[in-house]
Amino acid sequence: MLLSADVVHSILSEGKLKPRDFYAPKHELIYSAIAALANHGEPTDVITVNAELSKMGKLATIGGAEYLHELTSIVPTAASAKFYADIVRDKAVLRRLIEVGTRIAQRGYDAEGEVEELVNVAQNEIYTVADESTGADWTRLSKALQDAADEIELVQKNDGLSGVPTGFTQLDKDTNGLHPGQLVIIAARPGLGKSTLALDIAREAAINKKLATAVFSLEMSTTEIAMRLLSAETGILLQSMRKGGITDNEWAIMAERRSNIGAAPLVIDDSPNLNIVEIRAKCRRMLKEFDLKLVVIDYIQLMTSGKKVENRQQEVSEFSRSLKLLAKELKVPVVALSQLNRKSEDGTNKKPELSQLRESGSLEQDADVVILIHRDLSSETPRPGEAELILAKQRNGPTGTSTVLFQGQYSRFVNPKE
Questions:
Q1: What values do phi and psi take at 335, rounded to 5?
Q2: DSSP state of 409
Q3: How far from the centroid of its chain's Cα atoms is residue 346's Cα?
Q4: Strand (E) positions, 151-263?
Q5: How far are the Cα atoms of 201, 367, 406, 418 from residue 333, in angstroms, in the given order?
Q6: For 301-316, how does the pLDDT look when each residue is reduced to its tens digit (9 = 90+)?
């Protein structure tokens, strides 16, 4: 911090690091001096900090001007200051946890007072540490208004689209794209194209818009997904790929398109029995390695909590809430696929309803957007090949229905011809 004013303002503006977080008293004093100077709009170099400590009567306590110069020589660059600040903060939280834990343990051994009161005191002390560790996570109205103005401007520049595009014209008009922090549920009866629609959205984001996308597939293998993507992008029959019936011309088309498809920032994880803890850990790692913009999970009912549960509905509810929290933490849209319950399979070919989300009413509650897929599979249908994307819920916008075409032979949905 003695090397860069920008670092000082960055760390102080976060509001997370406090003078008492430093273990050594002299470092606490130096940080207090830096903060005092910055708050008065004054420079925070070795000379000014030296003068501020002298004014405080603490220069000798920290080891004099020599120690300040020694600190600047130990760290050659300010580039890692944020990382160092996090270490100081984390260690301070751990020390406070040890202190609180020791006091709680001693009260337990002493057994003085009512048990309920001891529990309340213990909870309050733990919560105090938790509150202190969160830092300044609030947002001033002035900044929120500026962020809103920036988004309005972005929407105007992008023809009304501010989020991650789905590639489907009417759906994008209705939603303005998929937005950071949103949990988007795609649901349908078996065999109607949940995975296909999810991969279409991933294709649009990663291949066409070059937005980093992660696909967690608990149902299909990486090879199966790659084949589907190739078929959808090249217009070569998926069945021909599976059976080895590719013509020379089609091989040439695949060779030409593979480099562009392969360059897309798309990662696929087909690990079996994935649980929410693993998904969160992998997403955090991806967020650090590249600028993750979209997460797709296929599908919720195949996830596992890794523990024995008596109530499957409660377990799915936990998944639902965890996925919503994941979307908020990562600041990306999370698209999760879900089955519908057995009432949707009564053979009447009725359109699906929001209440049919399988095994959990929490899916409906936690989701920001719910898209239900409907296709009339009866032989008498007047519109074979058409599918309806029913926008059954949208927390910040209208509901409605858009029509697309299902091309199962190429594993894709497409916009209807204008």
A1: -100, 115
A2: G
A3: 36
A4: 183-188, 212-217
A5: 11, 11, 24, 29
A6: 888 766 666 677 777 8
Q: How far apart are CA 317 and CA 303, in angstroms?
A: 12
Residue 90 carries which side chain, given as an amino acid letter?
A: D
pLDDT for 23 beyond 80: yes
pTM > 0.70: yes or no:
no
Cα 282 to Cα 164: distance, rounded to the nearest angstrom: 21
Q: Determine if residue 397 is left, alpha or beta; phi over 0 gives left, psi from -120 to 50 gives alpha, anything else beta.
A: beta
| DSSP secondary structure letters along 321-359 | HHHHHHHHHHTS-EEEEEEB-GGGGSSS-PPP-GGGBTT
For residues 233 and 256, is the Cβ–Cβ distance under 8 A? no
Cβ contacts of residue 185 below 8 Å, gap of 6+?
336, 337, 338, 357, 363, 367, 369, 370, 371
pLDDT of residue 138: 61
β-bridge pairing 369-374 and 386-394:
antiparallel
What single letter denotes the amino acid at residue 149? A
Which tokens is 363 given?
């899916």
Residue 224: beta bridge partners?
A: none
- Residue 98's Cβ-count burial label (10 Å; 0-12, 13-18, 19+) is exposed
Distance, in Å, from the CA atom of 13 to the CA atom of 112, rounded to the nearest integer, reads 43
Distance, CA of 200 to CA of 209 (rounded, Å): 12
Higher pLDDT, 138 or 216: 216
Residue 337 near residue 187, CB atoms below 8 Å: yes
Cis amide prior to 299 (ω within 30 degrees): yes
- Per-residue pLDDT band at 182 (split at 50, 70, 90): very high
Question: Per-residue pLDDT tens for 111-128?
Answer: 888 887 788 778 778 767
Q: Which amino acid is at 271?
A: S
List, in order of start, the domains of the chain with CATH numbers: 5-134 (1.10.860.10), 151-414 (3.40.50.300)
Q: Taking the CA atoms of the chain, what radius of gyration do you get in angstroms? A: 28
Residue pLDDT, tens place only, 186-196: 998 888 999 99
Q: Is 195 exposed, middle or buried (0-12, 13-18, 19+ CB in 10 A)?
A: buried
Q: How far from 120 is each of 16, 99, 105, 124, 267, CA to CA, in Å?
A: 26, 17, 14, 6, 47
Q: pLDDT-derived band of residue 139, with 50, 70 and 90 as boundaries?
A: low
Q: How far is CA 403 from CA 71, 175, 342, 375, 418, in A?
A: 66, 15, 25, 10, 12
